[in-house]
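U., I forgot to send this yesterday:
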Amino acid sequence: MNDKDMELRSEKVRNIVGQIPSYFLRTGIFIISITIFSLLLISCLISYEEYEIVLSELHCRPAYQTGQMLENGNFYITVSHENIHEKQCAGYIKDGKDSIIRLYSHVNGKITYNCKTGDYLKKNDIIFSIIPDTIAQVLAVSYIASDKICKIKINQNVILYLANGNNVKGYISYIYPIVIADSITNNLNYKVEAILNYDKNIDLSQIEVTHKMKILVSKKTLLKKILSL
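Result:
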């Protein structure tokens, strides 16, 4: 500002312009500047995570084996203990024509019967289940709607919540390319597979049971999230 500009202003204005800001004013400006800078720094450091919530069924490899009644009839148990070997007969069905249908184990594992020997059961009733002794992988299988599949990518982190209160982490390992029509709702879904970290938190009795799972679909800084709104 030159002398000519100063002359155009009133005496009161010239007195104010010529003064140094007070200590409190300077301190206030400094605090406000530091606060704004701190908020920007925090928003750059804090992550904002967005999840997609889906239903997922627990599976394992080698596969968990379920025995079902192939015909109406009586089922007779042939294993007297909970351990069973591959190709060992788990029991047999005796139908109304006295025909014998034998059911065999596909794996070495622990067998649990859903009936007593000699019980009369109907076709498709569950008879037993076998959990393999050696499990290579524990999987979560989900069916995700076609309008949401664009959010799902390979290697995205997942968290599966079990009925016993534990949760298990993992990642998306495969997205099947063929769309599947739901037989009840006719909705179009994609089958998505996640590999879970297999540890003692997984209750293997929950195999083939449906659980809630969260898929991490986006992870941005808070600043980027605010700017994208």
